[in-house]
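Why does this matter for the project? Reviewers at the last site visit asked to see concrete outputs rather than summary tables. In response, this paragraph embeds two records directly. Each consists of the residue sequence and, immediately after it, the corresponding structure tokens. Nothing has been edited or filtered.
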Amino acid sequence: MAFQSYSSSDQLLHRQRERIFGGGGGGGLNTTRKLSLFFATLCVVDLFGVFPIVALPKSIISCGLYGAPLVLFVITLQIYTAVVLGRCWTIAEKLDPSIVAKNRYPYAAIAEFTYGRRMSVFVTVLLDLTVFGGGIPNLLVAAQNLQLLGSRVSGGSFEISFCYWLLIIGLFLCPIMWLGSPKNMRTLASISVVVCSSVAILTWISIGEDRSGSFTPFKDITLGLPPFVQLLKAYGIIAFQFDIHPMLLTIQVDMQHKRQIGKAVLFGILTTCTLSMITTFMTAYRYGMDATNNVLQILPRSWSLYLTILLVTLQLCLSSAVGNSALFQHIEDLLGASRDFTIKRCIIRSTLVWLGVLIAEILPRFDLVMGIIGGTLTGPLIFILPPLFYQRMLELEKIYSQELKRSYSTESSQMSDDHLEDSDIETIGDSRRSWYGSIGSQGSTLSMAKIRDNCNKWIELVAIRCKQICHFMYSDCILAGSVIVFGIAATLASTYYNMFDIRETQLWFSCLSAWRR
């Protein structure tokens, strides 16, 4: 187990000195290439991308009055688990500085550090599936947007199926995917954030300029509780669109100040939620329940719509480059590829891109893919594993502190024993006898004032202990346990729903069938 490596006091002192004075040369030379809080926030916003702006409003509107509370609830839990996951890495670096060498796959490194190799393998497989599957909706929405653009510009006379646009996008994505980790993508992240902001503003303009007939504000939106299945579907889409946990630690290990990852997550979520909520309100007011899964599909023809479609497609491509970095790095390590730019890296990443294109051709429903990934795969990564790892990390940190104190106290006691005189021993014996009393009259020397003082001290001590227990139960046990229970229940329920949703869909192999005809 992980805690066994901290049982030696010599190792503890050595690691403590490494943490304070540095464990190797040249570490400070790379700080100029690290991410600042500002660029880390840009990376977080880039990971969210444009989906919360163009694909989330329909899910919120379908839930009626309960849509906004559902979003706030899920996002609040995600902020909590993102913060505790970042703390896990900070504690792990404190306990074992050598874990920095595993910075290409930090989530799996934390899993191995806390629960061993088997947990690491499970997390790795789950991460790879989630990151890989998360790129498929990017491809689908980008391809469908290009098909929509051709149809709207030409008035329906020029319309290339999104099945063919998927192939073109795959060719365009390959060179972008050859880039390295997020610290090598400052320019991409910056451009992506500007694009997201522009998409939101242009979408608002397009909605405001829609003069196609009369409309009823908030049409058909009810205030009652929506069907449970609709809540599950919305939960899966929200979890998918606001899930940054697979990439969060990759951003953190590239930051100058790793403890600021919580601020980066908070600022990024606030930025994205502001854009998304404004778009959702305007869409609900103008279109009501007639809103489509992709907001752009219901907007009227205009130059602002055409520009929005192009920007959305561009942002999805840039977001894929950053979001798939963790998967690419892990596969490259498994296949022994160099961390530098090589032909082998290009081949590996291009192969993964085309595999995603193939799956998109087989199942061209981005809302269904979002629900499967968000409800089934990201549940453990978001709500179950982070608090579970955090509780274990706190236990390991406690063991570490106890061993460190024991090593110092052992040295101090040896110094004290050498200078202990016989007179001191007699003094200690006299004090003990005066405290416990004797058969004679010494036991009656305790006054009522001393008894009252001792009682007050015990009461104060008990009160302090009770406060500590309450704080522990509130901040660690109950909160983490509640999040874990919610994650398990939501994952099981969403998986059950997704199984029936997949069974009922009639879109399997639609693109491949069209090609055969």
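We now turn to the second protein, recorded in exactly the same manner.
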Amino acid sequence: MDSEIKSLRIDRSAETHSGGPRGATRWILIGIALLVLLGGGATVYKNMNSALEVTTARAQSQQTGGGSNQAVILNATGYIIAAHKIQVASKVVGKVAWIGVEKGDRVKEGQIIVRLEDDEYKAQLQQASGQLMNLQARLDELQNGSRPEEVAAARANVEQGKADQENARITLARTRQLQSEGVMSKSSLDDAVARYDSAVARVNSLQKNYELVHIGPRKEQIDAVKGQIEQAKGVVAFMQTQLNNTIIRAPVTGTILERVVERGEFVTTSFVGDRGAKGFVVSLADLNDLRVELDISQNDFNKLGSRQNGVITVDAYPDKKWEGRIDEISPEANRQKATVQVKVKVLNPDEFLRPEMNASVAFLSDEKPQASAAPATAGKPVVFIPPSTVRNDHVFIVVGEKVVDRAIKTSGNTQQGLRVEDGLIGGEDLVVDPPAELKDGMKVQRKK
């Protein structure tokens, strides 16, 4: 009986070792899971690196009429920039010994901001000054001529040479006579002749030297030394300039925007890199000379004149306004963006404005408004926007390729749209039906 029951059992060993249906199913499930993970990762990566496509609508402004305000003909958004941002560089190579400014400090033109180590430049200046002094002394010597003692010594040398020449002549005559009598050899006569010729040559040399000492230096010699002195003066002036350049001063009055060096760091006259020697020490700008940089659509560009006036507002202080006027229009358009860059000068800048702030400009018509009996509040632009652009009392403004989240205050819906009391000036491009995942600063792309 037991043997019959055992014979009825299922043998699973063969299925396990042969990779049967259950093992195959497991691998299929693992493969599907990997595909899902890879597909999800690719989707996330694509979403992180691609711009979100959005539809935009422009905030419209309408003039209520009357008052002294001019009509708004165009609104644009951009950024505040410094008209002239200067990177203050060193004219010489050296190590920073002292730095006297911090980011945000106000400096005046000519104020010392950095000192470099100057020991080497002082030594080079001292060496050049010594060379100049030597040449000046040499010129004085040539111009003063020979001293009486030098002339007397040269004359005495000539007299001594003549005496030696006379002795050599007498010796030669005696030797020649004795040699003719056979007393002295031919070689002795040759020696006497050589000594006499040498004495004659020495007298001629001493005579010429005496004449030179007596006459003094030639004009050409003096001119040559004068030329060397001028060259040495140039070297001294250059070394003095190099020494002066170890003191770096503010070229203009302004505010320090960035400080890139510390005490002990090396600066050079050319850019090396972030980890090497620094090509400049600070950057500064005059914050009393600001511009608003705008990209105006080519479709709206014809509404503006070369000196168009406007009203400037910034996100940080929505209740404040500044006067502006077009100061610069780019001579060429941007083909990719279909825009023209315009810079508006801030006519009344103050401490509230900072470079890189978001700013809006409402350009005003040049036509003078007609007088009317409207209330004192008349003339203020009223802004209307589509209700679909609002999410929780916030709108998303498209600036360039990114969005800016801005809170607004509305007063009700009208036939023209939702009336905005605060937060917009009109002309802003707003995202319609902003997606839930849309956040401030995200990259977007307008739907074509």
